[in-house]
């Protein structure tokens, strides 16, 4: 009897302890922001608190379609923030996107926050914008997970933003009604609204609103270049990271061109649905989000871009950066070594010097000789290198260089340029759905650095990660973390990364080293002249 009594007392005490522990754990994952209280979760062996699916703006639906984001509603009680929200309207496009969202919806303006479990104050903040060509992507993707950056003492935020026709559609009628005689660029209005939300709420998560670094890859990097210059967002930025791309070498339309395309888009959509309307925008707003996406896709209107809209982007970004009209903050940016493949230039031709010359002559009939001077080749390997460089530069690398070069010329803050060269391993067989056999890349392909930089190799199961990959990830993540914390990527145990003003970049692989960029300056100076 005494044994039973003692057991019951012990069981009761253990139950009290468990309840107390659970309450403590739940309390650690409670945060109050301006909109109300959030209940998050603990991750990474309870080292990190995560708060997901937080609305930073009202749902852009109904009359709010193609309007600037409006303030998010407040709520009563505690909002469950343990799950990701909806991703923005998009088609399935890229096989390497591993989503964890609640489904696709026009109601998608959510963000996610990861912060150290041990509560602190004035921590540096990283706000990351995903890539996907402004047509796909989501803040829930595994490769962008913020837990491993939070483990480094950085409050990390991923942001959903409107895509495609929902985010970048311009039209004369929308411009007339906007109040600033422009339209489109709702994508960047969303991103600016998210940065404003971060400025107003990040202290609740331990972050310092005066230590916010924005970052992104591909379309996310293009976004960073726009946000640094936009009057809507520049005041919220204290540092910037651009991984592959900017709006400083094309892809930025005039408002006139954007509106003309918008008229063509609207006409083809309504025609395809056999609808006629005196009020085009009202007719388009009456369509459901899925109907609009499907109709735009069927009419082959999938890809949209930014425009000089007199509001979000008042002038071309090249003008704004050249005039010093942007956020003067430290910038770290660069490219991957294989942003494009040599086959995209050579086609089915073998990589001989003669075939290379023929390919260039067909591709650039008016500037063939100049291109051959800028991208010379005397043997098969040089042909592959030169053709790969052309494909990479035309796709994205030139734009990153132009951005870095102009910022360095007009900014007293430190700038750092890189070329990422580590070759990612092959995709696991169970994830490879193409009919042809995989072959190793010649360099770091577009987007291959993301998991490494954010410390997320283990979260993304797609690839056959090796010991060398973890070594590279540790190096890249430490460079990025140092930059986010101090505005300088250098730190103990890392190869020195010189500032770009010294005419050097860092080659990033398992053994990083600095390289003089005179050869790139000659190439890009020549290429810019040919394009102008």
UniProtKB/TrEMBL annotation:
Pfam families: COesterase. It comes from the Bacteria. The keyword Ribosomal protein does not apply. It is an enzyme of class 3 (hydrolase). The keyword Hydrolase applies. Belongs to the type-B carboxylesterase/lipase family. Residues 1-23 form the signal peptide. InterPro entries: AB_hydrolase_fold, CarbesteraseB, Carboxylesterase_B_AS, Carboxylesterase_B_CS, Type-B_Carboxylest/Lipase. Residues 29-508 form the Carboxylesterase type B domain. Gene3D superfamilies: alpha/beta hydrolase. Its EC number is 3.1.1.-. This is Carboxylic ester hydrolase. Keywords: Hydrolase, Signal.
């Amino acid at each position: 009897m005494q044994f039973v009594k003692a057991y019951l007392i012990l069981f009761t005490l253990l139950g009290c302890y468990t309840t107390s522990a659970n309450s403590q754990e739940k309390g650690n994952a409670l945060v109050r922001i301006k909109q109300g209280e959030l209940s998050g979760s603990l991750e990474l062996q309870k080292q990190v608190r995560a708060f997901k699916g937080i609305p930073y703006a009202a749902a852009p639906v109904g009359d709010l379609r193609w309007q600037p984001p409006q303030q998010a509603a407040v709520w009563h009680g505690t909002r469950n923030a343990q799950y990701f929200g909806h991703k923005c309207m998009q088609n399935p496009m890229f096989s390497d996107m591993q989503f964890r969202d609640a489904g696709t919806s026009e109601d998608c303006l959510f963000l996610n926050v990861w912060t150290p479990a041990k509560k602190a104050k004035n921590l540096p903040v990283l706000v990351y914008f995903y890539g996907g060509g402004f047509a796909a992507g989501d803040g829930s993707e595994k490769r962008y997970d913020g837990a491993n950056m939070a483990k480094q003492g950085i409050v990390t935020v991923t942001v959903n933003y409107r895509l495609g026709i929902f985010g970048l559609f311009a039209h004369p009628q929308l411009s007339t009604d906007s109040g600033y005689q422009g339209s489109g660029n709702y994508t960047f209005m969303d991103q600016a609204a998210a940065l404003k939300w971060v400025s107003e709420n990040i202290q609740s998560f331990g972050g310092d609103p005066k230590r916010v670094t924005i970052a992104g890859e591909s379309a996310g990097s293009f976004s960073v270049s726009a946000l640094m210059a936009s009057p809507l967002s520049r005041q919220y930025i204290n540092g910037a990271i651009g991984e592959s791309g900017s709006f400083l070498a094309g892809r930025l339309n005039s408002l006139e061109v954007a509106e003309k395309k918008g008229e063509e888009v609207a006409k083809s959509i309504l025609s395809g649905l056999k609808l006629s309307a005196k009020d085009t925008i009202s007719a388009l707003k009456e369509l459901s989000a899925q109907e609009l996406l499907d109709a735009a896709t069927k009419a082959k209107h999938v890809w949209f871009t930014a425009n000089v809209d007199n509001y979000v982007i008042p002038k071309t970004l090249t003008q704004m950066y050249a005039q010093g009209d942007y956020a003067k903050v430290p910038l770290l940016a660069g490219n991957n070594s294989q942003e494009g493949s040599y086959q995209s230039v050579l086609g089915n031709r073998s990589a001989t010097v003669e075939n290379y010359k023929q390919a260039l002559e067909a591709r650039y009939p008016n500037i063939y000789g100049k291109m051959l001077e800028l991208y010379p080749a005397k043997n098969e390997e040089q042909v592959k290198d030169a053709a790969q460089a052309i494909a990479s530069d035309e796709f994205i690398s030139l734009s990153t260089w132009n951005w870095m070069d102009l910022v360095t010329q007009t900014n007293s803050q430190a700038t750092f340029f890189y070329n990422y060269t580590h070759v990612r391993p092959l995709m696991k067989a169970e994830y490879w759905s193409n009919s042809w056999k995989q072959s190793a890349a010649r360099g770091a392909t577009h987007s291959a650095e993301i998991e490494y930089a954010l410390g997320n190799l283990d979260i993304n199961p797609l690839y056959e990660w090796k010991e060398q990959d973890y070594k590279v990830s540790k190096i890249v993540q430490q460079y990025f973390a140092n930059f986010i914390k101090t505005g300088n990527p250098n730190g103990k145990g890392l190869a020195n990364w010189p500032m770009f003003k010294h005419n050097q970049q860092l080659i990033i692989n398992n053994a990083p080293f600095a390289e003089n960029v005179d050869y790139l300056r000659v190439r890009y100076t020549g290429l810019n002249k040919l394009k102008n």
